[in-house]
Amino acid sequence: MIRESRAAVMYDFNAPLIVETLRLKDPRPDQIVVRVVASGICHTDLSVVRAALPYPPPVVLGHEGAGIVEEVGKAVTHLRPGDHVVLSSIPHCGRCAYCRAGHAHLCDSGLQAAMSGQQVAFEKGGADIAHFCGLGSFATRTLVDACAAVKIDDDIPLNRACLIGCGVITGVGAAINTARIQPGETVAVFGCGGVGVNVIQGATIAGAARILAVDVVDKKLEWAKQFGATEVLNVRGLTGDSASDEIRAKFGDMGVDVAFECIGSPDVIRQAFLSTRRGGKAVIVGVAPFGVEVALPACMLPLEERSLVGSLYGSAFMPRDVPRLLDLYRRGKLKLDELVSREIRLDEVNAGLEALESGGVLRSVIVFE
Ligand code: APR
Ligand code: ZN
């Protein structure tokens, strides 16, 4: 059986994606074929195009997708054709040591495998083409491991549900699962793009008392307020450690309980760390280009008991978190509609990436016919 897919392929770094018709590989028994209905464009896709994440081309990008199951492999028992699914950009096998220890987001078949370039879903003229994060959701139809799909209720619009698959879980999960923000705590969020505003709404849901949004673009700070920021700071032009000095001053000369970095900049990671109070923690969500290092006053780690922790994929366990988040959406407590700046067609994908780079949008969502 020949399965075709119209997909956006990256053949080279720093070059426009090419939208073309590919052939889908035959599904393995543990895989499913998904008709993608919608896919958000995330900064990580842009980071691959810009070679900041050295993922080898050719690859179909896109890892924030939702769609409808078309076929299931013989070994798949938890899904059937017609099911609506959110695609998890970090799948979990359920069997490895990490999964068994309750750290599904660190699964052996997760990020490391997904970044290897060896997961192949498409071909063209006999040549293999990988699918980014094991998803490749910039495609009308894709092939994914069944463990990467989480079934959702049919009443949830897929052009909103897709956002849960990366930006929302990464941000809300960082606030709730990784940082475990407590009611009344104070928070600073550096970088108020698609991920940062979700940290802000996660902090709001968790009951943070004060949430300071930090960015270099005023429009992002306006959006941040919609997602629950109680105060904002534009740090454009601030040099050295003046951003963190200013933030500590705003919080009674102490600093915040938790600071999040949602950019992937070593300078901002330092500012986030220095913005925390004694005993506070800096949670690093943004992915810096590979090879980049961070400079911090090391003595502050023990002597002030500050901590620096990473957060991958919101420390998520998707079978638990996806239904919870969609329930919050239904009750009006999780904003998804407000995240979508634009809906675009697949052949507008390059404009969508440029809009993200220029700071003009929170999220563009590709909606497939
Ligand atoms: N200080 C403060 N804010 C900054 C700075 C800075 N020095 N530099 C950039 N920003 C802001 C941008 O203005 C933008 O609002 O950071 C935000 C980044 O947002 P997006 O481009 O929308 O990126 P996003 O999808 O949120 O991802 C952010 O998280 O998952 C990772 O790989 C992803 O590293 C990326 C990060
Ligand atoms: Zn992403």
Structure characterization notes:
With 369 residues, the chain is α/β, with parallel strands linked by helices. It folds into two domains: 196 residues, Quinone Oxidoreductase, Chain A, domain 1 (Alpha-Beta Complex), CATH 3.90.180.10; 144 residues, Rossmann fold. Helix content is 26%, strand content 28%. It is built from twelve helices and 18 strands. Strands 3, 5, 6, 9, 10, 17 and 18 form a seven-stranded mixed beta sheet that branches. A six-stranded parallel beta sheet has the order 13-12-11-14-15-16, with helices on both faces. β14, α9 and β15 form a beta-alpha-beta unit. α5 runs parallel beside α6 and α8 runs parallel beside α9. It is globular. The two termini are 22 Å apart. The structure holds adenosine-5-diphosphoribose (APR) and zinc ion. The site of zinc ion has 5 residues, from loops.
Global structural class: alpha/beta
CATH class of the largest domain: Alpha Beta
> Which molecules other than protein and nucleic acid are bound?
adenosine-5-diphosphoribose, zinc ion
Q: How large is the radius of gyration? A: 20 Å
CATH overall fold name of the largest domain: Quinone Oxidoreductase, Chain A, domain 1
Instruction: Look at the structure and give the mean pLDDT.
Output: 95
| pLDDT < 50 runs, ≥5 residues | none
Q: What's the SSE pattern?
A: EEEHEEEHHEEEEHHEHEHEHEHEHEHEHE
CATH homology superfamily of the largest domain: Medium-chain alcohol dehydrogenases, catalytic domain
According to DSSP, the number of beta strands is 18
Share of helix among residues? 25-40%
